[in-house]
Predict the 3D structure of the following.
Amino acid sequence: MIIKRPKEGVILKQWNRWNPSSYGWEDEALAYEQQLQQSQPLPASDWTKERKVHMLSQMVDYYATHQQDNGAIIDPHSEAERYYSTPSYALAAAVLVSSGREDLLDSGAKALTHSIELLVSERTPDQHPDFFIIMIMGAYRILKSRLPEQAELWKQSLATIEPEQTYLFTMSKMKNPNRMINWNAIMLSGEVIRQAEGIAPTDTAWIDNYLQQYHLPRFTSLGWYEDGPLDRPNSPFAYDIATRYHLSVMMLSGYQGTTASELQTQLQHGAISSLLTLSPLGELPPRGRSAQHQWNEAAAAFIFTMQAQQAYADGEVQWAGAFRHAADLTWEAIAKWQMPDGYVQIVRNHYPAEERHGYEVYSNHTTYNLWTAAALAYTLWYEQVEEITPYPIPVELGSRTLQADGWFETVFSSVPGQQLVIHTALNDPYMIPGVVRIQRAGLHANLATSSSGHQNQGFTEFATGAIFPLSHMPAWQTQDQVWHHLAEGFPTVFPFDRDAGVDPSDGGGSYTIAESATTSDHSHLVIKWQGPLKGIDHVIAIYEQSPGHIVITYEVGHDQDSEQSTQQIDHIGAWIPLFQSDGQESSVIETATQESTEAITLTYRGQQLRIVPITPHSMITFPQEAEQVASRNGLLRGARIEAPGQRISFEIWLP
């Protein structure tokens, strides 16, 4: 299987390692490197080029049946052309044509022609012109030599684009630096390809200015991109990875402007950070809007693949193998949700697409299937990894605790083959605090939950289930007999706005990692939250983790000289999110008493976990308000372990 890649305009920079003086996780990366040098290579991957092309072909073939005569791809659920579905299809079809699928040439060309017409006439569906150009130019580069006469017409039309007017997220139109978000970066990336193809003036000054003024300042010391307003970014991991993906395509397309060197460093740092935090199942962290959408992993597949090739070219074969293995895992994470008809469930649940469970208000079945297909297509277009031997990724080697920087408000704790993801912001009703994900290699991602409930559903729509903030988090009962919990929050100066970010310090809350220690197969982590919580001043959470076994302990109390110090907390609790249904299959949740201790057993898709209280006189309850809780993956059921006093412990056993 040969995919012919472009020779001109493609710059594959050497890896050159990371800059220790500027990378935020230098020590953690160096520690992983030492483990990597002592590790053994993994068996040859079964994610061959042929398998990847086949997976992409199935996706494209499904949507080919929904193409109109004018080239437009029509969404079968809303019965309309949506967002950037058609240019995404054009790119994916073009890459398949380059692999030998000549039967898709006419279909891809029609989609490209229609997409160009929509863009230059400012008629893009749902007003998303900024997303069109990078798809259009990818398809154009591949198809121009096959259809030279048509290509001349494409080129003439594309030459009429005036970026500041054609696109939406420009300073000419928005006149607001806070609106120069991922949309603007995506447009810039496509414009670099238009320059590389000789269709636009080659002066990069205006591109350099956007990158320097509005995008480079968004990168943290970890190379993560903080999307949202510059002064209060909302920092979803989805739009971090999506923006880095587009900027990486831009770099490979020949960008050599004044910000190229710094941008390349930031993209490399971000790739290492994504590698260090990738789950054992190949999933990105679940924080912010568009989490648990398949295109997250598609963007990561591109980034990991390109980093694998750059590391390999620089002689770093083990780093290259780790990035290659990470890319394979992300392909696998998507493939698990591909349906027999070829499309994927765009969010990781089995609810019918028309019910939009776990979708964002802007999520669209056709758009996000084909965005996923386009990112995978770009990966195949640039991929040259067949000779790279896979090596273990960080979550498969040793133990580590990682604290995100910037406004990402996330802590990662892992032991070999197992990862906890903990959100820390006390005042964010969309991304609540506590353990929001537990994943272990070999287990279904949903068994121990992959995403939490919400206090405020923000962008997210659900077909069923209550909006309730459910994660692994502490609870406590005040003297008025009312139960409270960590995600309840407290008054803030700024009301919650789903479009703006949440300042973690707004309202007086904070968190610290009080203790952190690891061995090769054990992690000890203590997090202390402080703030004006109902009846208490602080919460201490202790997480002890080894493969297949997690012990969590909560303590609540008062600070010295606190106004609340006269209040007595007589009972403490631990909320437990139990996965209930993915929309297709339900779990079996049972309680039973063994050796005088009541425990919870959850069985889902042939796998089982147990949750066992440790604190004497504990009692398991199932509060009515958490009987059916909506999450992106389906439905959760909330259990609460209760005990007298101010300290409670329980353990989770994973097979």
